[in-house]
């Protein structure tokens, strides 16, 4: 029992962190992934395992914040135009999947002898997949931005939206189709529409101004506080309206997807999202009722096979019918066959009205085990494809095309006068370019002109990663601050070694530093503009073109010699400093020996 003077959640936090630190590395080493590690850790420490955590209900609201922040970050990655392009997947494919899977699973449950009402609630509940599980799996595979990944995400979005009519369906089934229940459903739909419109209006017209004010204060913690406030505030509004909290934070993220701050917000939120997502997966594992699971083990195993098999079949069939190649349809089928977290919401709504709780407890075990099995099914499918490749058989369809709108070929750091010209040169040739600048006003002005410029700090690995440094072929450092550039060069070499580094040198001394840093290319803008200026002046004074070329060559050669001398001088100074720092140690050793 916890000490009464102990801070709230203190002992629980230690247990959760300890379990994660032990379980996740073991799961990763075993090749089953972090999600399985979190789930098993939850089962072990939960009330039906070792009992280290007794009250799951206390922890669950905190854990659900992980899903909220996950959807907020996903919203940042999907601008409204791109979401509109997904409308057929969301409303067409998503709606078809929910209805067809719901009717099929309900029919099977009725044939197995379950009461009609329980079968309908159970069937449609298990038609919903787990947004948290499926998105995390897509992220781990690096397939979230693939064609099949976006189609799968469209289905998940429709499932999140469908929770409102499905909850209304439970009310209608309980009340026998009473007029009051139908009236209540229409009221709920009206409240939902109003809440969605409020999030959209506030996000579109107010949030960018708020973040512009905070960015100008240079208080990084305030940017983080504002990001959490926006994500959690929109989630709370949707929860009040009866929708999923995750959908609210997702809409807020979409509204900020076209702002200049999306990469910084994504980098700030990431650590909280990752830890809370781990906590969410552990709480799912903790809810597995081991005594009931063991008592009905064979029925639950058969239920998992039937649910995942039929749901996967429906997903594959619908994806094929709506234009996906066979390989993509199979990937969607093995990504979304599990039941989801909103299934528990429907089951809880049903049991609160007097339905037999034991039936829904058994169904809940099927839901949890289907989640546990999903990563394993995905790995089995990947192993099958790999074996076919090794034996000379190839997949019937090519690898999925990636279409991440913001994956740059070149990342430009610093969008002042120099960086702007560099970006224009690159974009004129059709190259994908993303730029970041730590001047919020400059980034906002550039965005208004339609340029891909975002607010961000080049000395932060998470910001560079969010801006696409990992996929960039070249990173152009066009900042004026030499310390910032030196830090960025070190960071890029360590974390993004594939990218070539091009640098703007402010003067000869800086050029020497860049040469010693072994960047791929550097240029002194003042030297080059001085050369051009001098060449034009000689031409106006009537000097022949041949002589101008000779003079330019001589000046460049003399400058190069000075750069070499300066480099050697700096190297000698560094060597002397090294000798000075090591000399006392040597003298101590000699005296000790003597």
UniProtKB/TrEMBL annotation:
State where composition is biased (Basic and acidic residues): 566-586
Q: Quote one Gene Ontology molecular function term.
A: antiporter activity
Q: Which domain of life is it from?
A: Bacteria
Q: Which GO terms describe its biological process?
A: proton transmembrane transport
The terms describing its cellular component in GO are:
endomembrane system; plasma membrane
Q: Where are the transmembrane segments?
A: 6-27, 34-53, 59-78, 90-112, 118-138, 150-174, 186-207, 219-237, 270-290, 296-319, 359-378
Main location class: membrane
Question: What does the record say about its membrane topology?
Answer: Multi-pass membrane protein
Q: Where is the RCK N-terminal domain?
A: 407-523
The record's annotation in PANTHER family points to: GLUTATHIONE-REGULATED POTASSIUM-EFFLUX SYSTEM PROTEIN, K(+) EFFLUX ANTIPORTER 3, CHLOROPLASTIC
Q: Which family does it belong to?
A: Belongs to the monovalent cation:proton antiporter 2 (CPA2) transporter (TC 2.A.37) family.
Q: What is this protein called?
A: Kef-type potassium/proton antiporter, CPA2 family (TC 2.A.37.1)
What is the originating organism of this protein? Cohaesibacter marisflavi
């Amino acid at each position: 029992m916890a000490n009464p003077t102990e801070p709230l959640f203190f002992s629980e936090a230690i247990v959760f962190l300890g379990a994660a630190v032990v379980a996740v590395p073991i799961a990763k080493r075993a090749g089953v992934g972090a999600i399985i590690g979190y789930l098993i850790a939850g089962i072990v420490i939960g009330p039906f395992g070792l009992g280290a955590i007794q009250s799951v209900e206390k922890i669950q609201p905190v854990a659900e914040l992980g899903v909220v922040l996950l959807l907020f970050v996903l919203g940042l990655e999907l601008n409204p135009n791109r979401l509109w392009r997904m409308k057929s997947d969301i409303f067409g494919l998503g709606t078809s999947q929910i209805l067809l899977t719901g009717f099929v699973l309900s029919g099977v449950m009725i044939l197995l002898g379950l009461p009609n009402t329980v079968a309908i609630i159970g069937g449609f509940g298990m038609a919903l997949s787990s947004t948290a599980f499926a998105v995390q799996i897509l992220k781990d595979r690096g397939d979230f931005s693939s064609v099949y990944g976006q189609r799968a995400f469209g289905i998940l979005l429709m499932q999140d939206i469908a929770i409102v009519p499905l909850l209304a369906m439970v009310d209608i089934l309980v009340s026998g189709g009473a007029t009051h229940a139908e009236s209540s459903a229409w009221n709920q739909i009206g409240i939902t529409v109003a809440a969605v419109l409020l999030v959209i209006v506030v996000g579109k017209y107010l949030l960018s101004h708020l973040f512009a004010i905070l960015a100008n204060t240079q208080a990084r913690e305030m940017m983080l506080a504002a990001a959490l406030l926006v994500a959690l505030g929109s989630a709370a509004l949707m929860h009040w309206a009866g929708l999923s909290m995750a959908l609210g934070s997702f809409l807020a993220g979409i509204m900020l997807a076209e702002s200049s701050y999306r990469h910084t917000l994504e980098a700030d939120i990431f650590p909280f999202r990752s830890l809370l997502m781990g906590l969410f997966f552990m709480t799912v594992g903790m809810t597995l009722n081991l005594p009931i699971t063991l008592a009905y083990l064979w029925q639950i195993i058969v239920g998992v096979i039937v649910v995942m098999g039929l749901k996967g079949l429906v997903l594959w069939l619908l994806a094929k019918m709506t234009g996906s190649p066979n390989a993509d349809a199979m990937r969607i089928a093995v990504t979304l066959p599990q039941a989801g977290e909103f299934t528990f919401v429907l089951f809880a709504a049903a049991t609160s009205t007097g339905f037999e709780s034991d039936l829904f407890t058994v169904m809940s075990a099927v839901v949890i085990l289907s989640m546990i099995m999903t990563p394993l099914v995905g790995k089995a499918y990947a192993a099958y494809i790999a074996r076919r490749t090794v034996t000379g058989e190839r997949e019937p369809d090519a690898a999925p095309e990636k279409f991440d709108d913001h994956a740059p070929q070149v990342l430009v750091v610093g969008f002042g006068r120099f960086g702007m010209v560099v970006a224009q040169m690159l974009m004129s040739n059709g190259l994908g370019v993303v730029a970041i600048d730590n001047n919020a006003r400059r980034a906002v002005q550039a965005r208004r002109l339609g340029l891909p410029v975002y607010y961000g700090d080049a000395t932060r690995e998470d910001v560079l990663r969010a801006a696409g440094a990992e996929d960039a072929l070249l990173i152009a450092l066009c900042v004026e601050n030499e310390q910032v550039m030196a830090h960025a060069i070190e960071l890029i070499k360590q974390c993004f070694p594939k990218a070539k580094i091009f640098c703007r040198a402010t003067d000869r001394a800086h050029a020497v530093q860049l040469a010693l840093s072994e960047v791929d290319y550097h240029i002194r803008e003042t030297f080059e503009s001085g050369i051009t200026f001098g060449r034009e002046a000689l031409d106006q004074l009537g000097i022949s073109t041949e002589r101008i070329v000779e003079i330019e060559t001589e000046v460049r050669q003399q400058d190069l010699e000075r750069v070499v001398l300066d480099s050697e001088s700096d190297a000698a100074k560094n060597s002397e400093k090294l000798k000075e720092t090591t000399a006392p140690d040597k003298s101590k050793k000699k005296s000790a020996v003597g």
